[in-house]
Amino acid sequence: MASALRTALPRSLSRATTTARPITLAAASSLRRHYSIAPPPPATTLQAPDAADPRLSKINTSTLTITKTTTPKAILPHNELVFGRNFTDHMLLLEWTAADGWLDPRITPYQNLSLDPATCVLHYAFEAFEGMKAYKDRAGNVRLFRPDKNMARMNKSAARIALPRFDGEAFIELLKKFVKLDERFIPSERGYSLYIRPNIIGTQRTLGVGPPGSAMLYVIASPVGPYYPTGFKAISLEATTYAVRAWPGGVGASKLGANYAPCVVPQVQAATRGFHQNLWLFEDIDPATGKKEDFVTEVGTMNLFAAVVGRDGQKELMTAPLDGTILDGVTRDSVLALARERLAPQGWKISERRFAMRELVEAADEGRLLEVFGSGTAAVVSPVRAISYQGKLVECGLKADQEVGPITLQMKDWIEGIQYGEEEGHPWSVKV
Ligand SMILES: Cc1ncc(COP(=O)(O)O)c(C=O)c1O
């Protein structure tokens, strides 16, 4: 199977199988002398050389084996749940080799991984992940929210760093079995959920830099409480102008662990100055004016929305476009779809467009900035009170005694209503 695939590629550009050596960058560039006829692909379609091969992404769900734990964990009281601190009894795990594709899936007791110190993920960050949730509805059914979106994004992220793709639909079937097995960990109150963390890593034992010849896809899950247990608390942001999270042609649109570690220091710096999160800007020339602007991208680990009234009186809900510098958030997409369906008929303009800090500052100064909020799986929406930018505090439309604006609150209600199955039969909510 794999040898047929390799015939399509220069031999040393194909994946290493078993203990074969991965290619080095020097070998790849010397090869390029002979194979430089095709133009390089656009950055948006960069992917593993064999990413499109369906044989290597196939998952056989019928061979799943389940080994149940003999030491079930105690269920923690709701008020002791801390995000990502406690995990369920089991994990889902699949291994992959370039020779055989995905091997038989397993659900095992939650346990340590055993990795050789030379495993490529530990040296070169061959790792991509997802964040999604399972919810329990009033009738006790367990539900996932748009899991196909997470699978599509994870496949894109994995392929960008030469990790294997996988059949998303088959993986959701396995995920359902895993979640069902550990469903006793999902509290049945609104606001509570099971955070699900799929993770894919390169497992080849090598210090050579090249496409990993083996990989592991595993899922762990952690019960979580509401992000705002005592009601919304609006956050304050520090706009970061001294560091950049992502750039055109980079990997900011991929959910790679390597994107997250470098963001921690600016977040800590913002915290030392009293801000909850930092706001990532990207300085660029505005082609309309020829002037430099600080374009708004995303906030911490959320996408960002701003509701403004234009000078012409037009109400607009806007967020940065998917230009490769922001993550294609599932919540962002959901907010946009609901806004187009339910706010546009009320006269709102819904925009995915570049907007600069200057635009927010002017709107705030002229009393036209209505609301700003972050969007993401963890909190659904997170209202923003103020943004510190160039030595000035930009007030984002909330009154002193107000923690959330009406659009932000409406979005939370709409999205949670679907997640918890209260909006009957909505296609985004997938029963387990
Ligand atoms: C950098 C970044 N942006 C945005 C998001 C929001 O994405 P989603 O709505 O899929 O959770 C996340 C969340 O995981 C993130 O890490």
Could you name the key traits of this structure?
alpha+beta; globular; six-stranded mixed beta barrel; 2 domains; ten-stranded mixed β-sheet; D-amino Acid Aminotransferase, Chain A, domain 2; 10 helices; D-amino Acid Aminotransferase, Chain A, domain 1; 27% strand; 19 strands; single chain; Aminotransferase-like; binds pyridoxal-5'-phosphate; 432 residues
Task: Give a concise summary.
With 432 residues, this protein is an alpha+beta fold. It contains ten helices and 19 strands.
Notes on the protein architecture:
The chain is α+β, with helices and mostly antiparallel strands and 432 residues long. It has helices spanning 2-6, 25-32, 54-57, 120-124, 147-160, 168-181, 264-272, 330-343, 357-365, 406-419, and strands at residues 65-66, 90-97, 101-102, 106-109, 127-129, 132-136, 142-145, 193-202, 214-224, 235-240, 277-286, 291-299, 302-309, 315-319, 349-352, 369-376, 380-389, 392-395, 429-431. It is built from ten helices and 19 strands. The chain is globular, with a radius of gyration of 23 Å. Bound molecules: pyridoxal-5'-phosphate. Pyridoxal-5'-phosphate binds at residues 131, 298, 301-303, 327, 329-332, 375-377. Pyridoxal-5'-phosphate binds next to strand 13, helix 8 and strand 16.
